[in-house]
Amino acid sequence: MEKFLYKITSIKDESPRVKSFELYPVSEEKRIFVEKAGMFIKIHAKDENGEFERSYSLASPPSSKTLELLIEMLGGRLTSKLTNAKVGDVLEISGPYGLGFEETKDAIAIAGGCGVSPFVGVIRYMIEKGIKNKFLLLYSSRNKEEIVKKEFFNQSFPQNIKVVITLTRIAENEQWEGERGRINKEMLLKYASNFDFANTLFYISAPFEMIKAIEAMLFEIGIERKNIRYDIWGIPTTQQNK
Fold first, then answer.
1. pLDDT digits (tens, 9 = 90+) for 105-123
2. Final residue of a domain: which of 67, 97, 127?
């Protein structure tokens, strides 16, 4: 496994719990070449217990030399180190990994929290390349404060790209123009009425419990397992390889 050195060029608070990190190759000759949108990389680190790695999906499009990661700061083995990271620090990474986004079919993506990261990269790629296939993103956040990439999602997207944000922990009297509550069958069918499900790929990127709930919902409406792709916090795969 070849590893590459990348320098942190930007750190931004995206929400109370999520930071975005932009990374740029230390050497132009030794850098990652990303083949598809929606892939992921691994950050390699070491501590008193030895070497370890963590996987993170790319929010940047394949054309970008700068890699963007959206990382929930959970105080874990790596994130406790990243909490104190600063611009100029160097990280050791490898990749890219994963199946990536298949641009030849219409797609419906369902994300929870910072699981939206690969779909930010997908949307950027679709706009950049002028891809005309339909793309629907259903994005679940706890509240307005925890929506990541707010400026990105506030922009106007091409007609074939639709983004729906739903909040699961919002007071009834709080002003909000989007959806409320967890993503369910009714919400999906409301916004996906113009999709041919038999010829649509479904992408789920979320914590494991949410993935299982969404998977059950998709099975209920007749979606075949072969048309579902999973990203369990940065490891896109088919179910049988999960």
1. 999 999 999 999 999 999 9
2. 97
> Residue 83: which domain range?
4-97
**Cα distance between residue 21 and residue 86, in whole Å:** 10
| C-alpha distance from residue 221 to each of 118, 186, 195, 200, 233 (Å) | 25, 11, 13, 13, 25
47 shares its domain with 87: yes
Are 165 and 91 in the same domain?
no
User: Which residues on adjacent β-strands are paired with residue 205?
Assistant: 111, 231
Residues 6+ apart with CB under 8 A from 193: none
Q: What is the CA radius of gyration of the chain?
A: 18
The phi, psi pair for 234, rounded to 5°, reads 105, 15
Pick the closest to residue 214 from 115, 73, 121 (CA basis). Answer: 115
Cα separation, 237 vs 242, whole angstroms: 6
Domain identity same for 180 and 130 = yes
Asked whether residue 21 falls in the same domain as residue 50, the answer is yes
120 in the same domain as 93: no
Whole-angstrom CA distances from 180 to 18, 91, 142, 155, 217 are 21, 39, 10, 21, 18
Prediction pTM value = 0.92
What digits encode the pLDDT tens for the residues 69-106?
A: 999 998 899 999 999 999 999 999 999 999 899 999 99
Name beta bridge partners: 176: none
